[in-house]
Structures are given as C-alpha cells and as structure tokens.
Amino acid sequence: MVELLLDAGALLGESPRWSVSEQRLYWVDIEGRTIHRTDPVTGADETMQLDQQVGCVAPRAGGGLVVAMENSCALIDSWGDAPRAFGPAVLADKPEQRFNDGCVDGAGRLWVGSLTSDKAHPAATLYRLDPDGSLSEVFGGLTTSNGAAFSPDGRIFYHADTPTHAIRAFDVDPATGVLGEGRIFHQFPLGNGRPDGAAIDAEGCYWSALWDGWRVVRLSPAGELLQTIALPVQRPTMVAFGGADMRTAFVTSAGKNLSDDERKAQPHAGGVFAFRVAVPGLVQPLFGG
Fold first, then answer.
1. 168 with 181: CB under 8 angstroms?
2. pTM of structure
3. Do residues 208 and 243 lie in contact, with contact meaning Cβ atoms separated by under 8 Å?
4. What stretch of H or E contains 261?
5. From edge to edge, which strands make up the β-sheet containing 145-150?
6. With bands split at pLDDT 50, 70 and 90, how would you rate the model's confidence at 201?
7. Between 20 and 30 A from 137 (CA), which of 8, 112, 180, 201?
8. pLDDT tens-digit series, residues 270-288
9. What gap in Å lies between CA 267 and CA 100, rounded to an integer?
10. Which residue, 197, 91, 206, is CA-closest to 151?
11. How far apart are CA 235 and CA 214, in angstroms?
12. Are 33 and 47 in contact (CB under 8 A)?
C-alpha cells in the first residue's frame, strides 16, 4: 500500500538517499534549490536552501554530503554548511546543461550525469567523480542522464537516457570503473512513461520510477517486468530503499508544469511516497571524498 510520507509540494523532487547512520532520508528539490532531510518515523522534514539548483546528493564516508550542483560538484561538511567546490566546473561553459542523477559505487566514486535543455542536440555526458576530486568523462551523446545504479556485486552498471525509453546495462570493472560495451536491459514502449531514477534491491532487481507513467516497476536481473506499483502522481522521479530493515521504498515526485486539471487529479504531486517491499534494498556505498 502506497502512503504519502511527506506532502512536500516539490517542484522537482529527486535523488532520495537513505542514511543508515542517521536513519534519515536525504533528497533534493532540484528547481526549489533545496536539500531535504526527512525522518520517516516522525515526519519531521529539515531543509537547506542553496543558491543554485542541485541535481543529486549522497552521504560521505567522513560525514556530510557530496552534491552535484548546476555546473560542478561540491562537498557539504555538515548539515547547514555552505557547499564548497570539489572538482572542476565542467559545465560552466555549457549553460544549456546542468548536473542531474547520480549514484556512488563500491569504491566510493560518484557517477553523475548531466542533462541538456537543447533536446535536438544530445550533448549531455555521464561523468565519474573520484574521491580525490578528479572528474572523468565516461560517455556522452546523452539528452537526460538518469537511472544510474549498480548490481549487488558491482559488476553491472545500469543507466537510462530518459527520452529513449530504454535502460542499458554495462559490464564494469569494479576496481577501475572502466565500462564494457552497453546493451539494452529493458525497452519501455513509447507513450506510457519514461525511465527516471532507480534503485537495486538485494536480489539484484532494478526498480525504475517512470516519469509521466504514474508508477514504479521492478525488473529482474534479466530485464523482465516482475512488479508494478501504481502511484497517485504522474511524475515519480526516483526510488530509494531505507528504514531500519531496508524494506521501505521511498519515491520522490515532481509537481511542476501541471495544468489545473492535472493538479486536481494529483493534489500531492511533488510529495514523497513510501511503500513496503518483500525484498530489502541495498545499503548504498558512501562517497569517499
């Protein structure tokens, strides 16, 4: 049963990440320029206002957060501190782009991609931010980098370029982060939702939030559709697992650009939702920088 955890009214809720040590859910409102820290037990929600959009967030091994801002990544040493630049401002000369979805691998590296507002020219890129602050280009030719996640053994990397309606899988060397050739993992039909943010559970199944699809789905390691969870919002954006037993799925959503009729049909658009799952999620690695 899907429950409304927080009626946040986010413009573009994204990047839910569970902190095991704090038992809190971090997430961002990209266009609201805020980071949220939510206690699912009490419903308390703390916010941190930033001076620019923030695409994704992840806890760090030494405490604090790594965040992908509009044109560069940054570190936040503790809650409420101002972000400090970390790594090159690689998108500073690309005003049509900003950082978007990202996830941390088992070696503590942040894989983070960009999106472009110039949809006719797919020039967005997936990058890898290492703990020493070096930023490497993984591959380009993207429109909206999304759906980044790793298999439980760290040997498969999943990624979606949302407008293609496809999720791709890549063999990856966990030590070096070098990818092999990509392959189609799952192709969604056009017109019934596009793959956005994702998470992996303990059985290696891939959970995808479908933008404009009113649902999240669970796909087997072979890419087969196993389960569909209907949601009361049109634009779910990402899934994360958390809670004391890692068996609560949290889903962020977007409330921007809805007509009056659409708003009436989904009054909690932009909220954070939760439901229980049979298979726990994986504890996410912490960023090493």
1. no
2. 0.97
3. no
4. helix 260-265
5. 145-150, 156-161, 166-172, 179-187
6. very high
7. 201
8. 999 999 999 999 999 999 9
9. 26
10. 206
11. 6
12. no
Tokens representing 162 are 């949302």
Q: What is the pLDDT of residues 74-90, one digit of tens each?
A: 999 999 999 999 999 99
With a CB cutoff of 8 Å and minimum separation 6, the contacts of 265 are none
Arithmetic mean of pLDDT over the chain:
97
Q: Residues for the chain: how many in total?
A: 289
DSSP 218-282: EE-TTS-EEEEEE-SSS-EEEEEEESTTS-EEEEEEB-SS--HHHHHH-TTTT-EEEEE-SS-BP
Token readout for 100 is 């978007």
| Tokens of residue 83, six digits | 């972000």
The model's confidence at residue 17, banded by pLDDT at 50, 70 and 90, is very high
Tell me how far apart the alpha carbons of residues 208 and 4 are, in angstroms, rounded to a whole number: 19
Q: What are phi and psi of 95, to 5 degrees?
A: -65, -15
Closest CA to 5 of 256, 236, 245, 262: 236
